[in-house]
């Protein structure tokens, strides 16, 4: 086979770091070594870099600068939001509402809280992965202290009705957290209008570096510190800040804001081309997730009679990187909890594959995948006794 450039279609797992972000981080590592808590000029310089980055992240989300706390990423933001609110509001109640399609960072945090005396409601979703706001309303009790529903799903791309859920939370006086790791920098978020109290973001999902993220905490939210120690991050997260990471995150947020409208349209067009191409060229395939309320970069498909893992390996040999289920559950042969929650039978869920496009994805790359994929599927199906029986 002719050696071609590799094609990366796993941007929901992580994104390449933008060249301008690399430049900012290199300069920062080389020259800005001061501790932002120091009062001398070296410290002030580092602090200035940090606050400028905080402004960029706040501006991307439509929040105030002082409502952004830097963390080590999406997982820490989710953990801190949920545990922080749960522990600080124990006197009010011990009930939390979430969904069955959340990222493991939310689900496992809730499972941990169950061992600490909290009661968790895991709401089911419909066939397209949507949480019904009506079911959120019904699940509320006088002990509910927090609702945590993700903004968009990382596996099937479904965008959840967070505005409606947030309004319900607000009406009932309950805090609302949303995991916006897949949406921040990709689709508009305006915290001036969105009724959300806590929101998680991760830099490496928006062309920034790994190991840095943010938690938006609306002013007035009562929550416990996530890491105890010094007074950094307004006493919420102790420890000397990751200045190069923060500077890179700020740059990535700035670029994401600038490019969002054009990238949304461009990627959605490529997404639709890819979905219709796969549906047309390969029989017995279906789209996972919602047909219209979906991330502009998400193509999640069930391709019956072929294991997702086998498709992945064959694509990888052809230089194409995709994913089956989420990065965390691939490697295990358990079907994804998200696909199962959306009512997809386990035998079909195992046949799922996710392509997630990004700012570097080209039309030519999508064409190439549409050329290569049908042959891979045909080859694999030839080896499937079940497929033969179906014909
Ligand atoms: C990637 C991801 C996370 C975890 O973020 P990290 O920065 O990798 O810890 C959390 N939630 C969702 C929806 C994600 O896609």
From TrEMBL:
| Residues annotated for [2Fe-2S] cluster binding in this entry | 328
Give any Gene Ontology cellular component. Answer: L-cysteine desulfurase complex
Keyword match Phosphoprotein: no
Name the GO terms of the biological process aspect. [2Fe-2S] cluster assembly; amino acid metabolic process
Tell me if Transit peptide is a UniProt keyword of this record.
Answer: no
Cofactor dependence is on: pyridoxal 5'-phosphate
What subcellular locations does the record give?
A: Cytoplasm
SUPFAM superfamilies named among the record's database cross-references: PLP-dependent transferases (SSF53383)
Highest taxon of the lineage: Bacteria
* Catalytic activity, as annotated: (sulfur carrier)-H + L-cysteine = (sulfur carrier)-SH + L-alanine
Alphabetically sorted, this entry's keywords are: 2Fe-2S, Cytoplasm, Iron, Iron-sulfur, Metal-binding, Pyridoxal phosphate, Transferase
Q: Where does pyridoxal 5'-phosphate bind?
A: 74-75, 154, 182, 202-204, 240
**Aminotransferase class V domain spans which residues?**
7-369
- InterPro entries xref list: Aminotrans_V_dom, Aminotrans_V_PyrdxlP_BS, Cys_deSase_IscS, Cys_deSase_NifS_bac/arc, Cysteine_dSase, PyrdxlP-dep_Trfase, PyrdxlP-dep_Trfase_major, PyrdxlP-dep_Trfase_small
Q: What EC number(s) does the entry state?
A: 2.8.1.7
Q: Mind telling me which HAMAP family this protein's record contains? A: Cys_desulf_IscS
Q: Which PANTHER family match?
A: CYSTEINE DESULFURASE (PTHR11601:SF34), CYSTEINE DESULFURYLASE FAMILY MEMBER (PTHR11601)
- State the similarity comment: Belongs to the class-V pyridoxal-phosphate-dependent aminotransferase family. NifS/IscS subfamily.
Please report the name of this protein according to its UniProt entry: Cysteine desulfurase IscS
